[in-house]
Design goal:
Blueprint: H1 2-15, H2 17-35, H3 40-60, E1 66-68, E2 73-75, H4 77-96, H5 98-103, H6 110-127, H7 131-149, H8 156-187, H9 192-198, H10 204-220, H11 230-236, H12 239-262, H13 269-290, H14 297-317, H15 321-345, E3 349-350, E4 353-354, H16 364-367, H17 369-383, H18 389-403, H19 407-433, H20 446-461, H21 468-476
Antiparallel strand pairs: 1-2, 3-4
Length: 479
């Protein structure tokens, strides 16, 4: 028996190896940071190495579905894929923003460590099969993001955005926790599989709890009407933090939404479907309309991200596996587009100052043709212009929606796509047809340039093999 217990423990530790390695690495580099003076560069490089090693560990982990610790923790193809997506996007966001961090005096050794802590929280979120583990992961991520939002303490806008995010996020976490406690009360379990068995349309209390949980999750992915923090935090926080907010937490948030709809809430489809459809439509409309009047690029990208989450939620709203797969494809391509978009912002530097306004892009095609063409590819892709990657992201979602005969949702999605093209084309018009105002400093951020090349390359050549993400998404629900 003792041999069996030891073997079981070793197997459990092996299944949790990415989380264990990440936790021990965080403790180690935190100690190094404390005892080594001016350790930002060392800690930063070690953080990148830790992320790469963690990716390797996950790739070497098998994708077969395993549940451990009283079935509260799951390791399967779904969680492995989202963990790898979180790590790769974090690696690119971090390294492309390194120059920005140093030049804006944000080079504190705690910065990359807090990023790693938020990643650890997201790992527990996407692997959770239990309400308690899910909430612990969510709070670890949220606490890290509170600090990141207000890390530039000497900047009034950054401090204001941090407080705003903290207050509103704490409120949403309270609502979500209330929903979790209600769900436990009405089903008698915190385990997702047990909740799915107990949950049905006759259990009115559990349906009520589901609404509170959806409110909390919608806040985390900044879906309307729980988006109010997004534009202010995106604009006020340093660009390096904004790029992280715009990409990585969105991946984990959507993974959680899909997981909740697919497992615990699978038997009350009609109850949550209406809510998701409303949130999806509202996000698409607000993202398209509000972005039209924006003059700040970061604020515009905030409303753009709200709109894109609306399209991803349209896939989730179908309530079928093909819809969930289309949402996964969408968020994967969204990550590529936004890494490219924010990397472009790091090259908009004049006399040591980073420019954020659309007017600063006036006529840059004349002096910076490569930067201009990069903006063109990424903005056309965000607008969903064929044959770029962004077009296929929307295509898979609309196909899944039309297969379920949700014609109203598809029509609204198409109309808002056309509307959103207006503000993307407005930026392109500014870049190519306005008179040149600013000549930016020579680009020295090599990793940001690499990110732009990779992003544009993938978006341009995606039509050669458009089923690449589709093939991966199909395997995620078969393990």
């Amino acid at each position: 028996n003792s041999v069996k217990i030891k073997l079981n423990m070793m197997n459990n530790l092996n299944i949790m190896l990415p989380e264990i390695f990440l936790s021990l690495s965080i403790f180690t580099i935190l100690m190094l940071g404390v005892f080594i003076k001016k350790s930002f560069s060392i800690i930063f490089n070690l953080t990148s190495l830790i992320i790469i090693i963690t990716i390797a560990i996950i790739i070497n982990n098998p994708d077969n579905k395993v549940k451990i610790f009283l079935e509260s923790f799951t390791r399967d193809a779904f969680s492995n894929y989202f963990k790898i997506l979180i790590l790769i996007s974090s690696l690119f966001v971090l390294n492309s923003s390194k120059n920005f961090i140093i030049e804006n005096k944000l080079d504190k050794f705690e910065y990359p460590i807090i990023i790693l802590l938020s990643i650890l929280g997201m790992f527990f979120m996407v692997s959770s099969n239990d309400l308690i583990l899910f909430y612990l992961g969510l709070e670890l991520q949220s606490l890290s993001l509170y600090i990141l939002a207000s890390i530039d303490r000497d900047n009034l806008r950054s401090t204001e955005s941090g407080i705003k995010y903290f207050v509103l996020s704490a409120l949403s976490s309270g609502l979500l926790l209330y929903g979790c406690s209600l769900l436990y009360g009405f089903t008698g379990s915190t385990n997702f599989d047990s909740i799915a068995e107990q949950l049905n349309t006759e259990n009115a209390g559990a349906v009520f709890a589901m609404v509170f949980i959806l409110v909390g999750l919608a806040f985390k992915v900044s879906a309307v009407p729980f988006h109010m923090w997004t534009p202010d935090v995106y604009e006020g926080a340093p660009t390096s933090i904004t790029s992280y907010f715009a990409v990585v937490p969105k991946v984990a948030g959507l993974a959680l939404l899909i997981k909740f709809m697919f497992i615990p809430f699978s038997n009350i489809l009609l109850e949550w479907q209406t809510i998701i459809i409303f949130i999806s439509i509202a996000s698409m409309i607000l993202g398209a309309v509000a972005a039209m009047v924006q003059k700040n690029l970061k604020r515009l990208l905030a409303y753009s991200s709200i709109g894109h989450i609306g399209y991803a939620l349209a896939g989730v709203a179908t309530g079928v596996i093909s819809g969930y797969q289309s949402a996964i494809i969408y968020i994967s391509i969204y990550v590529i587009m936004n890494i490219g978009a924010f990397s472009c912002l790091y090259l908009l530097k004049k006399d040591g100052q980073y420019k954020e306004n659309i007017s600063d892009l006036s006529g840059i095609s004349k002096k910076h043709p490569i930067l201009a063409i990069s903006f063109l590819i990424i903005l056309f892709s965000l607008a969903g212009v064929p044959p770029l990657g962004g077009f296929f992201a929307k295509f898979y979602v609309f196909v899944a929606v039309l297969e379920q005969q949700m014609y109203t949702l598809a029509i609204i999605g198409l109309v808002t796509t056309v509307m959103s093209a207006f503000y993307y084309l407005k930026i392109i018009k500014t870049i190519y047809f306005d008179d040149n105002v600013i000549t930016f400093d020579p680009a020295r951020n090599k990793f940001a340039q690499l990110s732009i090349i990779l992003s544009c390359g993938i978006l341009l050549t995606f039509f050669l093999y458009p089923s690449v993400f589709n093939n991966v998404a199909i395997t995620l629900f078969n393990s």
